[in-house]
Amino acid sequence: MFFNDIHTRIRFILLIIIIILLLIIGKVFYIQVFSYNKLSKITEDLWSRRMTINAPRGDIVDRNGKVLATSIVTTTIYVVPGQIKAENKEKVSKDIAEILNCDFDDVYKYVAKNSSMEIIRKGMDLDSKTAEKIEKLGYDGVYLIVDSKRYYPYGEMLAHIIGFVGSDNQGLSGLELTYDKYLTGVNGSLKYYSDGKGNKLEVPDSYIAPSKGMTLKLTLDLELMEAIYNELNNAMDKYNADNALSIVMDPKTGKVLAMGSLPSFDPNDYQSYSEEVINRNLPIWKTYEPGSTFKIITLASSLEEGVVDLFKDTYYDSGAITVEGSTLHCWKHGGHGAQTYLEVVENSCNPGFVTLGEKLGKETLMNYIKKFGFGSKTGIDLNGEGNGILFSLDKMGPVELATTAFGQGISVTPIQQVTAVSAAINGGLLNTPYVVDAIIDESSSAIIYENKPRVKREVISKETSQMVRFALESVVANGTGRNAYIENYRVGGKTGTAQKVSNGKYMVGNYILSFIGFLPANDPEAVIYVAVDNPKGVTQYGGTVSAPIARNIMLSTIETLKIKEQSGGMLKEYQYLDVHYYVLPDVVGMTKEEATKKLKEFKIKYTGSGDKVIYMSPSPNTFQSADTTITLLLN
Fold this sequence. Notes:
Elements: H1 6-34, H2 36-47, E1 48-53, E2 60-61, E3 67-79, H3 89-100, H4 104-111, E4 118-119, H5 128-137, E5 142-151, H6 159-162, H7 174-178, H8 180-183, E6 188-193, E7 206-208, E8 215-218, H9 222-239, E9 243-249, E10 256-262, H10 275-279, H11 282-285, H12 295-305, E11 314-317, E12 320-323, E13 326-329, E14 337-340, H13 341-346, H14 350-360, H15 362-371, H16 398-405, H17 414-425, E15 429-431, E16 436-440, E17 447-450, E18 455-458, H18 462-478, E19 492-502, E20 505-519, E21 526-533, H19 542-561, E22 581-583, H20 592-598, E23 603-607, E24 613-617, E25 623-625, E26 629-634
Parallel strand pairs: 2-8, 23-26
Antiparallel strand pairs: 1-6, 2-3, 3-4, 3-5, 6-7, 8-16, 9-10, 9-21, 11-14, 12-13, 15-18, 16-17, 19-20, 20-21, 22-25, 24-26
C-alpha cells in the first residue's frame, strides 16, 4: 500500500539517487584527498621510465693522500626501442656498431627488443671521443648517460690488498669487498615519461645526481710499496723464484706500511687471471715452516723465563744433537764448537736452540708461542687470512719440542711472524695489525671512522724485549744477518732457511729463504720481512738471498720515514771479500800531512793550494767504505 502512492515512490527513488550521489562524491573525495599520492605514484610509474646513473665509488688513498684506487668518468649507451621507428632500427644499429667497432648483431638485438629500455653491453665504459660520435648521430631513442668505472692506477702492485669490483661496481675482493658499504655511493637517475608504446611525452625530464662513496685512507705508503715491488720483481727475475713476498710494519702500532707479493694480477683486467692468483694474498694467506726466523720467539721466551744467560752460559756445538734417537743437524757441517748463547743466536745454531727448547719444556714454550699469536688469526682487516698449524700438546714429544724450538714442524703465516717479532722488540706488546687508517666523508671531510692501535696483551717484559733487540743487532753485526748491515744505522734481524714439505716429506733443494729485520735497533720504527720461495741458481740461505733484499728495502724505509743516523751501534765483524767500512775521522783544522796520515784507509782528493784542511766531505764520524774518496778543502 505504501508504494502504491506515486508521490511516495518518487520520494523513495529520489532518496536512493541522493544516497548514490553522496557515495560517489564521498569516493571522489577519498580518492582526491586520501588516495591522491598513492594513485599519483602508480600513474607516474606507468608513464615514467628511469635510467640509473651509477654513483662513483669512494677513493682509496695512501697515508699521504695519494690516490690508489678511484672512479673515472665514462659513458654508457641506453636505447628505448619504442622510440626508434621500425624502418630506422637497422640503420641505427649499423651506425652504432661501426662506431663501437663491433658486430651489427651485438647492437641490433637490443634495438629490436620489445622493451621499455636497454643497455647496449658493447656500449658501456665509452671514452669521450666515442661518446661524442654517438651523440652526433642524433637518433631518437638513443641516450648517453655519464657513468663511472673503477680504475687502479698502480695495477698489480696493490691488487691483493685493494682487490677489485665487478661490472655492477660492487666490491668482489680485498678492501673493495670488506669496506664495500662505505665505498659504495648513492646512485642517481635520469627520469623521462613515455606512453605504452615507448613514445616520449612532452614532460620535462628530471635528473638526480649520484653521490660519491666515502674515502678509505690506508696506513700504506706508496713510496714504500714501490720499493718493495721493485725488489720483489728483481728477486723473481734474478732467481726464477716460485713466489716472493714482503711486509713492512710499524712495530709500535701494528700499522702496515707496505705489503705485497708476486705473482700478482692487474685488477683493471682481473678476468684474465686464475682464481688461484687472485684469491691468494700470500703475506696473510700463505702458511709454511718459518725456519730460523722463529728462533726469535724461542729466544724471547727463554730470556723471559730466565732459563739462559746469553753472556755467561755456554754450549758446545759438534754439528748435531740427538733427541730420542733422532739426529738433528746444525746448518754448519762440523758445528760451531764452544759458544756463548749470544753466539748461538748469532750463528743460528740449531742444536743450541734445541737445548733452549728443552730448558723451557713443551708446556711453557707452547704457551709463549700462542701468546705471541701463532695458531690463530692476527685479526688484520683483510679477508683470506690463514691460521697456521701448531702441534697439540698431547702429540708433542721431545723431537717435536726440539724442532719447534728452531722453527721446523710448525706452520705460520708471514703476518703472524711480523706481528710476533714486533711484540718481541717493541717492549713486549702484541698489537693487531691493520691497513685501514680512517674512513672519511667526501662531502664534509668528516672522519666517520678512525682506526686506533689495539694491544691484545703483554707477552714479555720491556727488559726482555731490550735484550732481544741487543741479540738481534748482534746477529746483523756479527752473525748470519751480516748482509743486512747498514753503516751509520742500527739494524737488528734474523735469517731463515726453511725446507718445504710436499706430501708429508721434505723436498730436496727446495727452500723458502727469509729475513726479518728492524731499525733502529735501539728504538724500532719499522719491521721488514722478506721471503723468497725456491730461488734457483744460488746457494739457498736466507742470509744470502733475502737479507740483501731486506737491506735495500730498509734503505728505502730510512728515506721514506726520514730515520736519522744513529751512533752507538755495533761495528760489523768483517770477513774475507767483505767491503770494509771505517769511522771517518774528523781532520778539519789539521795540516795536509796530518790529515793524510789520519785518513790512510781512504782515498783522498785535495782541493785548494794551502796546507790546512778547512772542510771535508763526506761528513766526519760516519761509517764509510775503504774505497770512498774523501775530498779535503785546503785554505
